Amino acid sequence: MRESILTIPVNEVFEPRDGCPICRMRDTVELHICEYIMGAAMMEPDVREETNKLGFCHTHFTMLAKQGNRLSLALMLNSHLAQVRNNIFESVNIFASKAKRTGDASDSCFICSKVDWGITHMLKTVFTLFEKERAFKQLFKEQEMFCLPHYKLLAAKSGQMPKNTRAEFMKALKLVTSEYARLLNFNVGQFCDSFDYRNAGRLHDPEMEHVKTSPQKAVEFLTGRNI
User: Fold this and answer.
1) Distances (CA, A) of 155 to 128, 131, 139, 204
2) Per-residue model confidence as pLDDT tens digits over 172-204
3) Which member of 22, 47, 83, 182 has the greatest number of CB atoms within 10 A?
4) How far is CA 215 from CA 24, 131, 223, in A?
5) How far does CA 45 lie from the centroid of its chain?
6) What is the rounded distance in angstroms from the CA atom of residue 152 to the CA atom of residue 43?
7) CA atoms of 65 and 60, how far apart (whole Å)
8) What is the tally of structural domains in the chain?
9) Helical axes 163-193 vs 110-132, angle rounded to 10°
């Protein structure tokens, strides 16, 4: 299968063999979208219409704030707040409950919707490469880990693969993820044990760095997000 604009980004996130490749995929898409909407696209009517309607979740509000363009963020917030006020407090609709109107305004996110769309399409390339490219299949099996949310996502989306290929895919996915979870569990246990007075100072040993960072890695594995 020849490299293309579809396969190159997928190979790039799998190549490091460090952490969850689907997290890297998501991070790349998220950054691209944040930079896009905080730039000239902020003033495009169709984009503003969507951001006014959907808003952003806390995670993506934080990412937008870190872009450093406070005016762009404030402009989006201003028009989004106006629409929220109109939908929840000022719009009169006897057929819509207050709970429904409130939920529509708080449970959606413009960036989440775009990331989900992008990841879904990129995963189709992952499945195709696993099926047709021996080198990629080996690369997939050599991954350090898949975080739990993306393990579940890959398992759910893999139903589109041919039956025999999916069986091999799921076997590889489960092996990588379960082995990482086992080792992580062991390391977190060692971290807890290091606070026993009999192990005083052991955690400061340079060889214990993987144990020292295991709680953070556990959160990353369980949530797909760093702390």
Assistant:
1) 15, 15, 18, 39
2) 999 999 999 999 999 999 999 998 888 888 888
3) 22
4) 20, 35, 12
5) 28
6) 37
7) 8
8) 2
9) 120
SS3 5: coil
Domain end (from 133, 160, 177)? 133
The answer to whether the beta carbons of residues 76 and 51 sit under 8 Å apart is yes
Ramachandran area for residue 92 (φ above 0: left; ψ -120 to 50: alpha; else beta) = beta
Residues 124 and 175 reside in one and the same domain = no
Contact 80, 73 (CB under 8 A): no
User: Using one digit for the tens of pLDDT, what is the confidence trace for 19-63?
Assistant: 999 999 999 999 999 999 998 888 899 999 999 999 999 999 999
Residues 172 and 89 in one domain: no
CB atoms near residue 221 (< 10 Å): 22
